[in-house]
Amino acid sequence: MTALFALATSLLWGLADFGGGLLTRRIPALTVVVVSQLMAVTVLGVIVAATGGWSEAGPRLWFAVAAGVVGPVAMLCFYKALALGPMGVVSPLGSLGVAVPVSVGLIAGERPGLLQFAGVAVAVTGIVLAGGPQLRGAPVQRRAILLTLVAAFGFGAVMSLIAEASATVTGLFLALFVQRVTNTVVGGTALYASVRRGGRALPEEGGPAIRAALPALAFVGLADVAANGTYSMAAHHGPVTVAAVLASLYPVVTALAARGLIGERLRGVQAAGAGLALVGTVLLATG
């Protein structure tokens, strides 16, 4: 069951990242975050009410609130990086967020093994190679790499916080609901501030473009929520290391979707860097 849930996580996260990246190429990233999360809140609210999740309310929900504050920042950075592209580089670098749970373990007194040290070295090498445009002029902006690394840190922090926010399935639904409500409030506030400063909340085509994109926005929001749920189920049904390794394969899904659906191509050095970053992530998780 652990493998099944973790592989489902990879598929859901990978497709959500692909969809989010495409949407932000024509819709402001903050709008994508707010609308997709608002739709997820609606569905989660129904689930919490149906399962009696409110009975699980307690002080641990503050971890979900913290995750809800960090999450929109990470998603915004990640979607902007995906919009700058290419997805085959950005998505694997985003998976480096697994280093955050590892660091939490170090603070708690754990000591890294040889594989974890190797993972750090391989991941750093991958980051340098993925920035190959500085050597050959490949179309990857330095800003995209920086945004992706900020997003990776945020994703890792969210994983650690949500793990602390619940211990049961119904508690998980409530924690995800609280997290998404906070996501929407924080993202909505940022969107309002952006508009006040002269930014755009709608694409150039206006409201009709948003309405046309609602199914895709709903998919992105719900797939992200479902992935969090399946990952938690995987971690509760078996070794966390196995769940983390299999769930960390989601960049492969994003890269394959980008290659198959929009014909994205990478230079050799970029592909090598993205691959090494993914290998480093796996080594960090298994160490």
UniProtKB/TrEMBL annotation:
The keyword Transmembrane helix applies. Residues 3-130, 143-285 form the EamA domain. The chain crosses the membrane at residues 26-49, 61-82, 113-132, 144-163, 169-193, 214-234, 240-262, 269-286. Signal peptide: none annotated. InterPro entries: EamA_dom, EmrE-like. Keywords: Membrane, Transmembrane, Transmembrane helix. Pfam families: EamA (PF00892). Belongs to the EamA transporter family. This is DMT family transporter.
